[in-house]
Amino acid sequence: MSGWEQLQRILDCSINAVEVPTSDHPELAGLGPGTLIDHVDGYLQVIIQSDNRNIRVLQVHRDNLTETERQLISWSVARSSHITTKGVSKQDAKSEAERNARALGDWIVRQSASGLTESIPDEIALDGRLYAEMIPFLLETEQATEAAAFGELQKLLVSFLDEEVIVIPLKGQEWLVLAPVSLVRDTLEERDEQADALEESLESIGSGLYEMLASEWIGECHLAVGRPMKPVKSVVMSVIQLQETIELGRVFQVGSNIHVPWNMHLERLLASIPEQVRLRYVEQALGRSDVFMETETMSTLDTFFALDCNVSETAKKLYIHRNTLLYRLDKLKQETGLDVRVFRDAVLMKIILLLYKVTKRA
């Protein structure tokens, strides 16, 4: 005689087990085995098992149960569930977590490829964890990673951030990492007034994360970080934006492996211009298209613009004398007719430099 049949005999009532999609009863998601729920139709429901896809409940059809009988039902169901799952290994639980993450990753990839930006269906929303605001990181490795890398990456991230994270495999060389906003709690409360502080915090976290991953996990890689968002509604748009950010970073920020979308507005605009138009504009503006061919010229301009056109700081960063830098800038003025120490010419030179980069690497 089964446990349910024994319970039915003791209580002298009808008992049956049913299974329903979690999406039909989201309020029951995550409730533990043995949880009692009084149904509006007069019968008692008891949670047997609940996950992100289905909820299995026991229905006890009697409306005059005593408190002792209710406790007996709860204990019986909880004990039965414990016996059933006691033999499940930690490895099985980890495998289930990875399967769920990969299912979500496949859904994100399909949505992105089709141009859709729908909300995540409840059945793959990872037990409701994606309803909370989180920080998105997109990691692109230079080489394909093995399936076993899932557990290794998650372990490294949890150890480094000292927070629980969600790791979602996308393509063979892409990983989406969702971290709690508690990482930037100090600046998050005032982000409307201090957006720069929040962005600096996110860049700092991204920098440390990249250094750790590059040295302890996969080696050369690219990392993009976005502003906090609610994954259940915005994860597809966030992934698309971060993929674009890394793509632009590979072109315009050669030598850098950490990329953020709020520093890419001009690059995003210029990259949308047709290649022939870009090339023609560079040649017309400078009279020659090879003025940036020298590594020294490119490095000098990149550093000069990165430091807000500050001559002293640029010389210090390049480990050269201030007069040496001034000589380089004067030489560039002679060759191009543009003095980057003058605002108008600096803006034009910055645009030309970016157009040259994207044209040569298109």
TrEMBL record:
Pfam families: HTH_30
Top-level taxonomic group: Bacteria
Signal sequence coordinates: none
InterPro entries: CdaR-like_regulators (IPR051448), Homeodomain-like_sf (IPR009057), PucR_C-HTH_dom (IPR025736), PucR_C-HTH_sf (IPR042070)
Residues of the PucR C-terminal helix-turn-helix domain: 298-351
The protein's name: Transcriptional regulator, CdaR
